[in-house]
Amino acid sequence: MVSYKVLAGVGLLACVPDAFAIPVVSEPSTTVFSEPTFTPSAVPITNVTSHGPYTGPAPTTTGALSTSVLAPSIPARPPEPYKFAYPADGKLHAPEPAPYTPAGGLGTNGSEPVYRVQSDFDYQSIALALYQEYIELDLFHHGLVKYSEQDFEDYGLTAEDRFLLQFMGDQEVGHATVLTNMLGPEAPVQCTYNYPDTNLHEYIDFSQKLTRWGEAGVYGFLNHLDSRESAQILLQSITTEARQQVIFRQFEGLFPMPEWFQVGVPQSWAWTLLAPYISSCPANQTRLIWQNFPKLNVLNQPNPARTNGSAVYNETLGDYANTLSTADINAGEGCNNSTCGPAITHNRSIPLSYPGRQVFLSWEDPGLAVGPNNSYVTDTTAGAPQFAAWVTQLNVTYTPLQNISGNTAYTIQPNTSTIEGDPAVNGTIFLAITDCDLYVTPFNLTQINPHVRALTIYQAG
Ligand SMILES: *[C@@H]1O[C@H](CO)[C@@H](O)[C@H](O)[C@H]1NC(C)=O
Ligand SMILES: *[C@@H]1O[C@H](CO)[C@@H](O)[C@H](O)[C@H]1NC(C)=O
Ligand SMILES: *[C@@H]1O[C@H](CO)[C@@H](O)[C@H](O)[C@H]1NC(C)=O
Ligand SMILES: *[C@@H]1O[C@H](CO)[C@@H](O)[C@H](O)[C@H]1NC(C)=O
Ligand SMILES: *[C@@H]1O[C@H](CO)[C@@H](O)[C@H](O)[C@H]1NC(C)=O
Ligand SMILES: *[C@@H]1O[C@H](CO)[C@@H](O)[C@H](O)[C@H]1NC(C)=O
Ligand SMILES: *[C@@H]1O[C@H](CO)[C@@H](O)[C@H](O)[C@H]1NC(C)=O
Ligand SMILES: *[C@@H]1O[C@H](CO)[C@@H](O)[C@H](O)[C@H]1NC(C)=O
Ligand SMILES: *[C@@H]1O[C@H](CO)[C@@H](O)[C@H](O)[C@H]1NC(C)=O
Ligand SMILES: *[C@@H]1O[C@H](CO)[C@@H](O)[C@H](O)[C@H]1NC(C)=O
Ligand SMILES: *[C@@H]1O[C@H](CO)[C@@H](O)[C@H](O)[C@H]1NC(C)=O
Ligand SMILES: *[C@@H]1O[C@H](CO)[C@@H](O)[C@H](O)[C@H]1NC(C)=O
Questions:
Q1: What pLDDT band is residue 131 in, cutting at 50, 70 and 90?
Q2: Is the CB of 56 under 6 A from ligand 6?
Q3: Residue 373: CB within 6 Å of ligand 6?
């Protein structure tokens, strides 16, 4: 015990400044030079100069990366009994490894952290996140090139807002760098991209939706990573991305966060929504294992560019994310500075959607070429679709598909709450159609995948 105290004292002395030093109070000097510390170099970035659909030769490799597949799906199993063993009573139940240090936790025993992927799951998940960081890097910078200062001013965004957009693009360089370092030399690199927007309002809406699946796609796998060290850094990147999503909502005049919890989705959902906007990647680009689900169209997708945003039919750009189209908005029907244009927050006088809303859907058949060099193929293992799955906050809520006719049906927007006082269906959410109403919760949501027939984004609020 004595030796422990002496050693602890030595350790402390070595790390703290001299306790007897007398603090000098003086006017701050402006002449002192501060030597810059070592800064890690960023991944090489080029300004992507070409945009648009892929027009090159047919790909030589098609489909998702795969190896031998052991079973068609993962069975549901009972919980592990030890998870009920800890007496959660506010008392301590084990000796403390050090002062003020409760027993337990993962990665807490002093082993040096290794910020490196540890499994196929880790590699594929972080590679997916890297594809996403690279598209954001290009998308945010490209918006500033594609749309003029006048476009931004007319829309109600200033030079300061444009700098914020520029800064958000620059952040992506850092995110791409840390993810690349976790993966090593075969990490995916920048590609070229194909965006659906034809004007600034559509661009903002597309960016707002894209950052939502970027954020949610990572939340879905973060706590399943083997490499908790990588998860730590990724967490600190993705919370930045989440702020970007809120900024784009504000740019769009939407209530910045109309939910109490942010949703997480499976990797294949993020890849389904991301891949169609990648035009081509370099010849030796590392491929991904994830599934591309068929496209789901929301025929009356709420349109944030309208003051009466739920009074719409067929007003999207027809893309995978069901991005808004402004083409059919007449004078007097559109959002602008005063009503639902860019702002810190807006109470939209007419909500974008509401429980009981009839939502009309149509969906594509699988087998379509999508993604980089058209080299991935949409696929589903689901049977005939029966339900719409509203994936929001902490909940997956199923509503029956009605009037199913070929690849079309309608369903009714549910009236459900996550916690008392928190309506579950609001904000930028995920909507899938499924062949059954499988019960899943945030940590096992991926179990839904074998039952997903098609999916998209629904702009609930
Ligand atoms: C990319 O373009 C921006 C201006 O649009 C410029 O400042 C920057 O230097 C360019 N970067 C590269 C690597 O060419
Ligand atoms: C998902 O987890 C819930 C408990 O949170 C469980 O009741 C359900 O059976 C699980 N679903 C599957 C498909 O494993
Ligand atoms: C520390 O914990 C890791 C697991 O996180 C374990 O592999 C390792 O053996 C532990 N080291 C010691 C010294 O207990
Ligand atoms: C929005 O406000 C800006 C600056 O106040 C103005 O230049 C622009 O014309 C306005 N846009 C609309 C649609 O009213
Ligand atoms: C692709 O080629 C470049 C240049 O030879 C190399 O640096 C990179 O590691 C390669 N990537 C993969 C995934 O093999
Ligand atoms: C994809 O297309 C680009 C542009 O045509 C080409 O340079 C690249 O080699 C292609 N990649 C693959 C994997 O075929
Ligand atoms: C919004 O549009 C719907 C459908 O056309 C209509 O029933 C409703 O009255 C409109 N709301 C307002 C406030 O104009
Ligand atoms: C939606 O509008 C497009 C043209 O903007 C048209 O080609 C398509 O057939 C319409 N779809 C439906 C379901 O009305
Ligand atoms: C802006 O909103 C007002 C009030 O709803 C409307 O009268 C006006 O036409 C709108 N302007 C545009 C450009 O949509
Ligand atoms: C905004 O909406 C909330 C909730 O509907 C309401 O309580 C509040 O009074 C509204 N505020 C304004 C200024 O419209
Ligand atoms: C979403 O939240 C906003 C802000 O609280 C509210 O005005 C709107 O009615 C909500 N929409 C739905 C569909 O609940
Ligand atoms: C929503 O999710 C929460 C947390 O898992 C759960 O307690 C609640 O019962 C769910 N609500 C509905 C309506 O399913």
A1: very high
A2: yes
A3: yes
What pLDDT digit, counting tens, does each position of 10-23 carry?
444 445 445 455 55
Q: Rounded distance, CA 343 to CA 263, Å?
A: 24
Check: CB of residue 310 under 8 Å from CB of residue 299.
Answer: no
Q: Residue 24's pLDDT is what? A: 60
Which pLDDT value is given to residue 2?
Answer: 36
Adjacent-strand bridge partners of 428: 459
pLDDT score at 28 = 62
Tally of domains within the chain: 1
pTM, full prediction: 0.92
pLDDT at 125 over 50: yes
Ligand 1 pocket list (CB less than 6 A): 45-47
Average pLDDT, the chain: 93
Render pLDDT for 369-424 as a digit per residue (tens, 0 to 9).
Answer: 999 999 999 999 999 999 999 999 999 999 999 999 999 999 999 999 999 999 99
How does DSSP classify residue 61? S
* Residues ≥6 apart with Cβ < 8 Å to 25: none
214 contacts 263 by C-beta, under 8 angstroms: no
With vertex at residue 199, the alpha carbon angle to CA 194 and CA 200, rounded to the nearest 5 degrees, is 100
Which amino acid type is present at position 58? A
Which of 183, 182, 370 is CA-nearest to residue 290? 370
Nearest to 446 by CA among 272, 227, 267, 274: 267
| Residue ranges with strand state E in 150-233 | 192-193
Q: Does residue 272 sit in helix, strand or coil?
A: helix
Inside any domain, residue 73:
no
Rounded CA-CA distance 393/396 in Å is 8
Residue 63 lies in a domain: no
Query: CA 81 to CA 85: how far, in whole Å?
Result: 7
pLDDT at 336: 73
State the distance from the centre of ligand 3 to the C-alpha of 225, rounded, in angstroms.
Answer: 17
Share of the chain above pLDDT 70, in %: 93
Closest by CA position to 210, among listed 271, 151, 152, 251: 271
Contacts of residue 70, Cβ cutoff 8 Å, sequence gap at least 6: none
Using CA atoms, how far apart are residues 283 and 123, in angstroms rounded to an integer?
Answer: 20
Q: Rounded to the nearest whole angstrom, what is the distance from the C-alpha of residue 337 to the centroid of ligand 4? A: 6
What residue numbers bound the domain in which 396 lies? 114-459
Contact 267, 124 (CB under 8 A): yes
Ligand with an atom nearest the CA of residue 423:
11
Residue 88 lies in a domain: no
Q: Binning pLDDT at 50, 70 and 90, where does residue 338 land?
A: confident
What's the token pair of residue 368? 């379509």
Q: What is the pLDDT of residue 29?
A: 64
Does some domain include residue 45? Answer: no
Backbone dihedral region of 287: left (phi > 0), alpha (psi from -120 to 50 degrees) or beta? beta
